[in-house]
Structure to design on (292 residues):
């Protein structure tokens, strides 16, 4: 048993500690207990700015090829992750045989993954393949990447039939220690929604194989209320900017999207910057990845 003198000394020490804590703004014991340290495997909310942009093979509304103009537009977005559609790589004279996604990534100081939809034999033996597809640019290191097949109706075949084809790009980026799955897509443009119905089913099947935060970026070639897109909104939240995206000059419909898996992130703000550097406008979203 403690002596009376020791108990008095201990009481004085506790009183001194309490007074110092009050002066320094330290929380009382009850408040500290109510705010425990994060347990292993949890993360604080992390801000992430993402964008999607159909770059129209480098051409603007004036149909003039101008990659400098598009690079300036993308730089101004200050996005951490960007999904690109209609990106040429050594495709042909319309884009000066250049690697558009690679050049844009280099100018912006970002990592890149290109997922071709079409990859054709080179025009000259030994030359690079002529490719057209989608891409992801990321300020964060890409730790893995894949080019998935979904149903497509080829524009290169004179008598196409719906069949699996590549061009649904996926990367995993590590954002402040947390893996995030980012997908970029470009759905069929034809008025008949049958191919888009199959593509949405393929998209959901592929994304269901992954866990953790998921972000879908793309030109879906359908407006938000389109029946063929409805299944997507069962697992994803549409980061609605409240503005149309196409055509870039005087746009009348929204066919470009940022969507996040439900519960994975808070959508703080989404907007559509004015631009005619492509025939589409970009969609930009400020997200906060939720801690888990």
């Amino acid at each position: 048993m403690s002596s009376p003198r020791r108990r008095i000394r201990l009481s004085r020490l506790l009183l001194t500690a309490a007074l110092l804590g009050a002066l320094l703004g330290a929380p009382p014991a009850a408040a500290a207990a109510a705010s425990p340290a994060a347990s292993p495997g949890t993360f604080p909310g992390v801000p992430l700015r993402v964008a999607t942009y159909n770059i129209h093979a480098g051409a603007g509304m004036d149909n003039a090829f101008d990659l400098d103009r598009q690079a300036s537009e993308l730089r101004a977005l200050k996005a951490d992750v960007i999904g690109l559609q209609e990106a040429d790589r050594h495709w042909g004279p319309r884009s000066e045989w250049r690697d558009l996604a690679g050049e844009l990534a280099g100018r912006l100081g970002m990592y890149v993954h290109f997922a071709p939809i079409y990859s054709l034999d080179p025009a000259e033996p030994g030359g690079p393949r002529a490719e057209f597809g989608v891409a992801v640019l990321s300020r964060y290191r890409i730790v893995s990447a894949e080019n998935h097949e979904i149903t497509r109706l080829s524009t290169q075949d004179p008598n196409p039939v719906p069949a699996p084809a590549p061009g649904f790009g996926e990367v995993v980026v590590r954002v402040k220690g947390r893996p995030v799955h980012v997908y970029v897509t470009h759905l069929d443009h034809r008025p008949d929604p049958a191919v888009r119905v199959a593509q949405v089913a393929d998209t959901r099947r592929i994304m269901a194989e992954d866990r953790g935060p998921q972000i879908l970026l793309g030109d879906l070639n359908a407006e938000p209320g389109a029946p063929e897109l409805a299944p997507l909104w069962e697992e994803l939240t549409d980061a609605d900017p409240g503005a149309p995206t196409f055509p870039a000059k005087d746009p009348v419909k929204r066919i470009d999207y940022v969507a996040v898996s439900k519960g994975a992130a808070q959508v703080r703000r989404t907007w559509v910057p004015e631009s005619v550097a492509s025939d589409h406008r970009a969609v930009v979203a400020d997200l906060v990845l939720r801690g888990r």
The longest helix spans residues 4-24. The helical segments are 4-24, 29-34, 67-77, 100-108, 194-207. The mean pLDDT is 88.
